[in-house]
Design brief:
With 547 residues, this protein is α+β, with helices and mostly antiparallel strands. It is built from 10 helices and 26 strands. Strands 3, 4, 5, 6, 20, 21, 22, 23 and 24 form a 9-stranded antiparallel sheet that branches. The chain has a 5-stranded antiparallel sheet with strand order 8-18-17-13-14, with no helix packed on it. The protein is elongated.
């Protein structure tokens, strides 16, 4: 064994191991006291970078959850106000029906109904103007996707979240232009469609009898024999005693009997359904009439949509007793008697996308050519038939609507179109019969509809307003359930899993680390003991020197 004094290698080795074990104990103490595996970048540089990125995402997800929960509360606030509007509209409908009971009401009762209806109209506008979440108004139109358009030309302007939530979409003034006017499908009956035996009426008080000498004749009270091509040309022509007429419209039968006039028949058909409008036929020998016009613009309708059937009790002569037999003639449409409508073609110019003005082409809905759509942008525009049926334009302001940040990153936003539900924005287009008088819910008050006896027009507008409010409630409900709440569930699951991944990288395993600490602590004590022994070793040199 060699002994050295100037350099005690064993002591140096002991010091090195002692320092290493001391550092290991220090790291274990730091981890156990902080609960973190990574306390500084030197602990795990790559792990620190990854975990900090995850922490940023977790923080963003947490805020997105808070944002979504706040958005749910806001939507529920708006929906609660709309629920109250539905109740008011139901009350308005009751008042209108009560006022229409003219046989029991006097003028003071109708006036009382009108005053209560006026108050309900004012309440709806007040709710729309004052409903707010914090300081933000919800139903006054300030959060609408589209505003400032001509309501006589556009009844409804839906802006989808696909457009409003786009990062490159900015509020802008645009122009909706009808470039090709839509037309309606028109139907008519011709003599060529008339099949079966002929019949006529001999006089106002006599029943019908078979008559093979008349061509395409139809029974008519008043002593006239009226051929099928002119029956609906005169409102005063009436069905004879014992006669009946059945009109089939869209598969539904409407039956008329003795004494009904042509004018009454047309009026009742118009009142009973809204798919077609019936009017007197043209004064042409080739036309039977009535003229039947589809109320919706554009293509649509089939020959099977309309037919007429004449039935009459049969007698062998005016003085003979009636038999049980029924003579029936049916008149049906053919394609030759249909004039197909033309779809509306439109465009929306000036939409701000990516800092530039964009033109969006719109196509008419196949069921109703007055509804223009651009599915790629989520646009749906319900125009007035008079507007869609003629070329023209209206300006519109496009906005972001109610925009919500529901994700942890940029551009993870969604929007909802909160339209104005003030009284003058509800019920638009609901009163085609009294066009120019009751054009919206507010006009029920300004036009004093109940006092003036316009009950049918009032009901049409109230029902349309109720549809408007209900549609907005449905839109908000779907947005809450299918966008916000499902998004919340996804955010919470993502946050949970990302937190678990970040914990694996960053958090200390106390069981493992306490075992490491115990090991390092024992090693440090051993290092101290061995260092003391190494420091004693050079003293053996003294024995060699005889000391």
């Amino acid at each position: 064994m060699s002994l050295r004094i100037n350099h005690n290698i064993a002591s140096i080795n002991g010091q090195r191991n002692l320092m290493r074990n001391d550092q290991a104990v220090g790291r274990s103490l730091e981890r156990l006291s902080s609960g973190l595996k990574i306390n500084k970048a030197s602990d795990n540089a790559a792990g620190l970078v990854i975990s900090e990125q995850m922490r940023a995402q977790i923080s963003g997800l947490t805020q997105a959850v808070d944002n979504s929960e706040t958005a749910v509360a806001m939507v529920q606030t708006a929906e609660g106000a709309l629920d109250e509007m539905n109740s008011l509209l139901t009350k308005m409908r009751e008042l209108t029906l009560h006022a229409a009971n003219a046989g029991t009401n006097d003028s003071s009762q109708v006036l009382a109904d009108q005053r209560e209806l006026d108050n309900a109209v004012d309440s709806i506008s007040r709710i729309a103007a004052t409903t707010q979440f914090g300081t933000k108004k919800l139903l006054d139109g300030s959060l609408a996707g589209a505003s400032n358009f001509d309501t006589t030309k556009v009844h409804r302007f839906d802006v989808g979240s696909d457009l409003m939530a786009r990062a490159d979409f900015k509020a802008s003034s645009a122009e909706l232009c009808i470039t090709t006017a839509g037309t309606k499908t028109s139907l008519s009956l011709a003599i060529a469609d008339y099949t079966g035996a002929d019949m006529h009426v001999a006089g106002a008080t006599l029943a019908s009898f078979l008559a093979g000498s008349f061509s395409a004749a139809v029974f008519c009270a008043g002593g006239e024999t009226v051929s099928t091509d002119i029956f609906f040309l005169d409102d005063t022509f009436r069905l004879a005693d014992g006669a009946s007429l059945t009109a089939t419209v869209m598969g539904k039968d409407f039956t008329f009997s003795s004494g009904e006039s042509a004018g009454d028949i047309l009026s009742q058909l118009n009142a009973a359904q809204d798919e077609y409008t019936f009017s007197k036929g043209a004064v042409l020998w080739t036309d039977f009439g009535p003229t039947v016009t589809r109320n919706k613009l554009g293509v649509g309708g089939t020959p099977a949509d309309f037919s007429l059937r004449f039935s009459n009790g049969v007698k062998s002569s005016p003085t003979a007793a009636a038999t049980t037999g029924i003579l029936t003639n049916r008149l049906t449409l053919t394609e030759a008697n249909m004039v197909r409508g033309v779809q509306t073609v439109a465009r929306l110019t000036g939409v701000s996308l990516g800092g530039a003005a964009t033109t969006i082409n719109l196509v008419a809905d196949t069921d109703d050519a007055a509804i223009l759509k651009a599915n790629g942008y989520g646009l749906a525009i319900d125009t007035a038939n008079a507007f869609a049926g003629a070329t023209g334009s209206t300006t519109v302001t496009l906005n972001k609507g109610a925009l919500f940040q529901i994700g942890a990153n940029a551009n993870q936003q969604t929007a909802v179109d909160l339209k104005s539900v003030k009284a003058f924005n509800l019920g638009l287009g609901g009163d085609t019969r009294t066009s120019g008088r009751i054009e919206n819910l507010a006009s029920l008050k300004s036009r004093q509809s109940l006092v003036n006896g316009d009950f049918k027009g009032a009901l049409q507008v109230i029902d349309k307003a109720d549809d408007d409010v209900t549609a907005l409630r449905g839109q908000l409900g779907a947005f809450q359930a299918n966008t916000l709440e499902t998004g919340l569930n996804s955010l919470r699951v993502t946050s949970e899993n990302l937190t678990a991944a970040e914990s694996t990288i960053r958090d200390v395993d106390f069981a493992s680390e306490s075992a490491t600490f115990t090991k390092n602590n024992i090693l440090m004590q051993a290092s101290n003991s061995m260092l003391a022994q190494a420091n004693q070793q050079p003293q053996g040199v003294l024995s060699l020197l005889g000391r």
